[in-house]
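> forwarded from #structure-qc
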């Protein structure tokens, strides 16, 4: 079961809803004919589980428009109700259920009296049947709901059907008797005219029939509305009083509140467009003055009135307590952590009492098709952009009117004994809501030809897919307490972090013909399936030594879904699918039972088929570290109040006595007991992170970008910037210069997240973000890059927001501001929220650095051999290759000098700079004696792993120099005691290395920025820092009085780079940019890059 927090941004875990995925989920949830029980999962076989994991790992997703219909075919299904914790029958709503004859039992004298007429909990089956069908809603009206259809409507519709058949039949006979015998020309024109007439007449008759049906439904719904308002006073159980209140408030609601709803529907439609439509945009949304109507409202079993109060099912989001950790143990651990000052974030959701309700709502457009009534109904204004090979973008405006809505929702309200007395409001839908729409032309002179099944069904499916994440057993929780505070994010979705160190594996099974395997390890949550971390691949080894550390965030979803932490060992194959070597799974709740402690583990490998045991063991260590509470001592005081002119009030009012405190209206009586209450928790916006805990969870959310536009530079012709002195016009939504923006989030020069594309908008609304683990927030830098999605050219940077956390989080742990985007080809202001929550994890100084860095070796390398008989080549000198996972440099034999007195061999050079990505899983290895075309095997190697080097400090290390049988395999393994037992090698000396690890990107990474992920990260660095560094360096080119040829070449290249980055000069012409894009594509196909380590995929909500 999945529970979504209201306000949760789109992320890799909370993806944008789409129609295809919605349909696939509905099909997957359909119980088979031989199912044991409704709502009970049938265990998968080992092969099916393996295939499912492989499919999820490949990231294959169906097209959005292919999922909704399959879900609807499944019909009613039993699922876990997240409100009551019981099994409930979920059934998709249908507008026909609200017609006459379906709800005749509304009479309170009916033997099937609704739950509203009964005491709570008396009907055991009432909670398992949602209203309005087959349960009995409690909106008691004496009259039939709605009024019966006119008896003459059926024959009238049948006459229209016969009319269409007559038109088709008459046209066919007319064509048969008139088209033949007068030549081919007469035959062609006669066939054309008769078929055109028949098609037009049939279409008009069909549209008339559809219009009459809709109009009758509107009239019937309006009659019910008037009848309910007329007879509601003598009916105490009626909810018409609530409908009257809703009708008054409905027109006062700010339409901006519906922007997130429109944004969700727009994203679903964008991912479901046919090929001939480039994009779709919701230009306007309005709720009108015709409100939703509450059909029924009834109480469901709640904690205070239940015999089994309290029940764990209601406390823990409807999930039963786990087998491994009982609820009593969890409560004791929670109480213990609270007494010790631990975090109380997840436990606050399990306090207080609950009240459960079920509400059925419906909506029907007002009768009449006049232009004046359009704005009174719920409506959308869509713009479809028709395109042809990116040459044309023709906007086609379409008015979409919502004709009817029917839905049933269940609510759970959590009450707490402190203001505002309500903490969480959880709601879930009892099936897919029924939605009926019509596409209305924007001119009254044309018939409603657009009201065809294609467009109307497309919009309905998009709305259905948008609500899929709220259908039981899924739900959404609104934290009312946090919403009434000033915090935008409030807290992270992650409860803590798993620190996992993979040491080594022993005795793996051979998967290749040579009797070896090429193992690597993937960490993931078993049910979620998506790989969250992947180690390096060690070629040809059955006892690989990794010594890699990964940090995995754990959220409430993993706990409620009773996830297992899975470590899967795979054999890498170049030409075929990777083979499974084995896997280990541990329940997440079991790992969280003892927080803030590292546990060493040795687990045997298991398989999929019947969970059979496989060869090998995995040696690893796991620890769960929870979030640290905010430090109350760091909280800033509340700013002093200001007067009406904005001036700070410095005068103190004289104290008043207790009677004086109650003399004026609105005064509150003094409460001496309030001093005995515990102090309020620290305000996240006024409490900066605690320097004691530098590691933690960073949440970055991009809400929207205001007034986004591209630069419009046209030289001496046409409009240009600054032509009228100052550009004060707001960007127009109708202009031809609208960008199709998307955002990339870069943390410490690593691209970690990419939003969806918002097509042709100057106010893109994203509400998307991600959460990542940050090793040290005091040195972390976040960059939000806004790009313009274009076809057949590189996506230019519209602007960048550079956010050093040490400067941003000086006054609070959460900051929400408007930032101007800079250093790009566009303008705008981005609304961005940052939240950092520390975890109780003390990493060593060497582990607080960045993953992307540059290794700088500036001093001579000195090689000392203990036994020269095993390295005779040292006296003659030799060449040396210095490499990282991502770069290589070579020192020739001529640069080597042998000192006979000390017996050491040294290499002198100016400086070596080796770019490296994934620094904590990479090494610098030195190969001695490599040379020649036929002999590529080195005589000896030295491997220095970078996970023990502190950033930005000069460090001197003596690296062991080893010789062995298979040095190519040995250099991939971490050398320790276990490696000595399982691999044949010998230490013959040491290599003295003095190096420095420069954190972050620099210009040395440009040649390695070949993939799109690395190139985009480097381009952001280049715009912010790189160009300034190059300009500063070239500014001193003439200090010696002469600018040589090389310096002139560098100056010219720097100028050309800046022109292309800003799309100036020749780069301002689209054909030039297209040719650059084609050149890059051809080059990447001729010389494809094969990285030594698998690059992690960038997360996205799309």
């Amino acid at each position: 079961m999945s529970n979504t927090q209201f306000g949760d941004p789109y992320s890799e875990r909370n993806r944008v809803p789409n129609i295809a995925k919605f349909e696939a989920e509905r099909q997957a949830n359909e119980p088979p004919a031989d199912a044991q029980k409704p709502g009970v999962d049938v265990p998968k076989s080992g092969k099916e589980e393996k295939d499912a994991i492989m499919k999820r790992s490949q990231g294959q997703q169906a097209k959005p428009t292919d999922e909704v219909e399959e879900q609807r075919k499944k019909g009613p299904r039993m699922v876990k109700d997240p409100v009551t914790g019981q099994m409930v029958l979920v059934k998709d709503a249908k507008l026909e259920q609200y017609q006459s004859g379906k709800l005749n039992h509304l009479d309170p004298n009916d033997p099937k009296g609704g739950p509203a007429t009964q005491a709570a909990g008396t009907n055991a089956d009432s909670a398992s049947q949602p209203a309005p069908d087959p349960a009995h809603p409690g909106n008691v009206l004496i009259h039939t709901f709605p009024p019966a259809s006119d008896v003459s409507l059926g024959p009238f519709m049948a006459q229209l059907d016969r009319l269409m058949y007559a038109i088709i039949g008459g046209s066919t006979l007319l064509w048969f008797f008139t088209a033949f015998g007068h030549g081919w020309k007469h035959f062609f024109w006669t066939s054309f005219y008769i078929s055109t007439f028949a098609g037009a007449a049939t279409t008009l008759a069909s549209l008339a029939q559809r219009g009459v049906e809709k109009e009758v439904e509107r009239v019937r719904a309006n009659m019910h509305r008037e009848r309910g308002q007329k007879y509601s006073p003598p009916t105490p159980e009626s909810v018409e009083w609530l409908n009257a209140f809703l009708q008054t408030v409905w027109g006062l609601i700010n339409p901006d509140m519906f922007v997130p709803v429109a944004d969700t529907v727009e994203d679903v439609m964008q991912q479901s467009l046919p090929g001939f439509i480039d994009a779709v945009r919701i230009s306007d949304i309005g709720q009108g003055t015709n409100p939703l109507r509450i059909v029924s409202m009834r109480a469901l079993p709640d904690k205070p009135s239940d015999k089994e109060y309290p029940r764990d099912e209601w406390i823990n989001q409807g999930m039963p307590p786990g087998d491994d950790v009982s609820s009593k143990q969890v409560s004791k651990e929670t109480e213990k952590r609270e007494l010790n000052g631990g975090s109380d974030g997840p436990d606050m959701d399990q306090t207080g009492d609950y009240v459960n309700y079920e509400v059925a709502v419906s909506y029907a457009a007002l009768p009449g098709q006049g232009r004046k009534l359009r704005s009174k109904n719920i409506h959308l204004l869509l713009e479809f952009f028709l395109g042809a090979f990116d040459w044309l973008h023709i906007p086609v405006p379409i008015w979409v009117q919502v004709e009817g809505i029917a839905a049933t929702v269940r609510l759970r309200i959590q009450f707490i004994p402190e203001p505002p007395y309500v903490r969480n409001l959880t709601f879930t839908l009892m099936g897919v809501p029924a939605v009926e729409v019509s596409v209305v032309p924007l001119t009254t002179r044309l018939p409603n030809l657009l009201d065809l099944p294609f467009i109307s069904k497309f919009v309905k499916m998009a709305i259905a897919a948008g609500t899929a994440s709220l259908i039981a057993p899924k739900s959404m929780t609104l934290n009312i307490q946090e919403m009434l505070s000033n915090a935008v994010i409030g807290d992270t979705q992650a409860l803590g972090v798993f620190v996992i160190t993979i040491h080594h594996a022993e005795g793996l099974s051979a998967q290749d013909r040579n009797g070896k395997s090429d193992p690597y390890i993937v960490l993931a949550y078993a049910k979620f399936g998506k790989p969250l971390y992947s180690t390096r691949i060690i070629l040809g080894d059955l006892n690989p030594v990794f010594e890699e550390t990964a940090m995995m965030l754990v959220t409430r979803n993993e706990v409620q879904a009773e996830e297992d932490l899975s470590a899967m060992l795979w054999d890498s194959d170049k030409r075929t699918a990777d083979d499974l070597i084995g896997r280990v799974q541990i329940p997440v709740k079991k790992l969280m039972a003892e927080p803030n402690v590292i546990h060493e583990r040795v687990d045997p490998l298991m398989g999929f088929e019947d969970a059979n045991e496989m060869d090998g063991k995995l040696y690893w260590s796991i620890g769960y570290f929870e979030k640290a509470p905010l430090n109350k001592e760091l909280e800033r005081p509340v700013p002093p109040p200001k007067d009406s002119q904005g001036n700070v009030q410095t005068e103190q009012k004289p104290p008043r006595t207790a009677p004086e405190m109650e003399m004026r209206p609105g005064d509150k009586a003094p409460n001496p007991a309030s001093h005995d209450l515990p102090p309020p928790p620290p305000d996240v916006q006024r409490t900066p992170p605690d320097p004691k805990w530098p590691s933690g969870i960073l949440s970055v959310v991009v809400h929207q970008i205001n007034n986004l536009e591209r630069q419009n530079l046209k030289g001496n012709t046409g409009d240009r910037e600054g032509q009228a002195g100052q550009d004060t016009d707001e960007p127009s939504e109708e202009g031809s210069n609208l960008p199709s923006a998307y955002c990339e989030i870069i943390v410490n020069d690593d691209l970690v997240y990419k939003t969806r594309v918002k097509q042709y908008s100057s106010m893109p609304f994203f509400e998307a973000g991600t959460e990542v683990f940050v090793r040290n927030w005091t040195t972390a830098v976040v960059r939000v890059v806004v790009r313009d999605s274009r076809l057949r050219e590189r996506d230019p940077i519209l602007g960048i927001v550079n956010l050093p956390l040490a400067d941003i989080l000086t006054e609070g742990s959460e900051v929400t501001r408007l930032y101007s985007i800079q250093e790009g080809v566009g303008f705008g202001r981005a609304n961005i929220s940052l939240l950092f929550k520390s975890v109780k994890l003390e990493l060593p100084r060497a582990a607080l650095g960045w993953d992307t860095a540059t290794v700088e070796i500036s001093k001579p390398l000195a090689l000392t051999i203990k036994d020269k008989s095993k390295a005779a080549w040292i006296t003659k000198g030799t060449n040396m290759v210095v490499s990282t996972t991502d770069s290589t440099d070579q020192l020739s034999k001529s640069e080597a000098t042998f000192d006979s007195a000390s017996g050491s061999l040294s290499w002198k050079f100016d400086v070596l700079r080796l770019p490296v990505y994934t620094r904590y899983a990479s090494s610098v290895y030195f190969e001695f004696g490599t040379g020649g075309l036929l002999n590529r095997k080195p005589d000896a190697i030295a491997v220095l792993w970078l996970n023990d080097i502190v950033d930005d400090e000069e460090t001197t290390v003596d690296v062991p120099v080893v010789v062995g049988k298979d040095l190519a395999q040995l250099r991939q393994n971490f050398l320790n005691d276990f490696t000595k037992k399982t691999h044949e090698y010998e230490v013959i000396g040491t290599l003295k290395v003095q190096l420095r690890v420069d954190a972050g990107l620099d210009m040395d990474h440009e040649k390695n920025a070949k993939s799109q992920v690395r190139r985009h990260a480097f381009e952001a660095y280049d715009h912010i820092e790189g160009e300034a560094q190059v300009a500063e360096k070239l500014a001193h080119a003439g200090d010696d009085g002469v600018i040589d040829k090389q310096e002139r070449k560098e100056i010219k290249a720097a100028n050309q780079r800046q022109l292309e980055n800003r799309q100036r000069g020749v780069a301002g012409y689209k054909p030039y940019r297209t040719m650059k894009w084609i050149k890059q594509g051809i080059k990447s196909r001729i010389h494809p890059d094969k990285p030594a380590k698998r690059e992690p995929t960038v997360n996205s909500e799309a």
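QC bot note: The radius of gyration is 35 Å. The chain is about 20% helix and 30% strand.
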